[in-house]
Fold Integrase arm-type DNA-binding domain-containing protein.
Amino acid sequence: MRYKLSSKQIERSKPGKYADGDGLWFVKRSDGGAQWVFRYTLHDRRPEMGLGKYPEVGLAEARESVAKWRAVLRDGQDPIKVRNRQKREAARADNTLSTVAREAFEARKAELKDDGKAGRWFSPLEMHVLPKLGTVPIEEIDQNDLKRVLAPIWHDKADAAKKALTRLSIVMRHAAAMGLEVDLLATEKTRALLGKSRHVIQHIPALPWKEVPDFYASLNDGSVTHLALRLLVLSAARSKPVRFCRMEQIAGDVWTIPAELMKGRKGQVSDFRVPLSQEALGVIEQAKPFARDGYLFPSIRKGVISDATWSRLMERRGMDARPHGFRTSFRTWLAEATDAPEQVAETCLAHVTGTKVARAYQRSDFLEQRRVLMERWADFVTGGEGKVVQMVRK
């Protein structure tokens, strides 16, 4: 075919529409911009298909594009519809479950502890879902796909399966926010298909509170392991705050645990004050000579003492109980040997109580009431009578 336009004509053209032939038109606007248009006839209609802006798309490229879409037209298909379908398919290819899940994770990092570096948020998906569904466009995923993936672990690894399903719900909502057509009820439908899990929750074994004094008395060699475990028992704190305890966190008889060492989502937890009993302060004094790099309880080589060190100690003694279980021992003692109000007792463990509205108005951490309880707990642990503590209600 003989074309009508040349590159020089295009460069010098004034505002208007110029036909090149075979349905290709050059359109020059009054604002100086220009573009290529493909005009064709199909079913008594004369659609116009944009082929790109000039000079980003040159004359030769525009002619090649027209030749390609002419071939589609000869095949009886509408070039515009074919192109739109190709775009949707390309978009779906980019919006696989794996891609969207990682985007959702990135968007959520700011509220996760250490920006999610520990991997606990993403690992249920990475281990149990993405290996089988990661390359599938998220818009195509339904409850049957999710059931097929999670059914093998629904009863045997129930905790991981439920976490994976919860994460998937968040990912689906993220996809919907992106404008993708996903089934927001897919995860709930999956739960219905999977049914009730047969898994029985196993709580962390705890030492009965009446046996704690004997165990505490056995921690008597003055080592970092024994001293750290004593503070764990006395403070009823979680493992990480004790292991990463630093002297600058302690002022008088109050230990302020930084928010980053507390359990909970980033931005939703704050520093937590722990009243220290005289016994706890004595343990800290004994630990000071061992301090390294600012940490009271360093490991033998580098860093701080590990959870495993405590667990192995208890295992060697033939104990079923684990270090974290001392929080349960303490909480049971509060319930059975004191009349501590529920809120005060739960605050001792840094648990959140009450509704969101109630917490907005009730901001006390009950430090003075807790100070009395922690001193009595220390008295009991070190061989006191463990008599009922009478709390003064305010």
Residues 112-194 form one domain. The two ends are 96 Å apart (CA to CA). The longest strand covers residues 48-54. The first helix runs from residue 7 to 12.
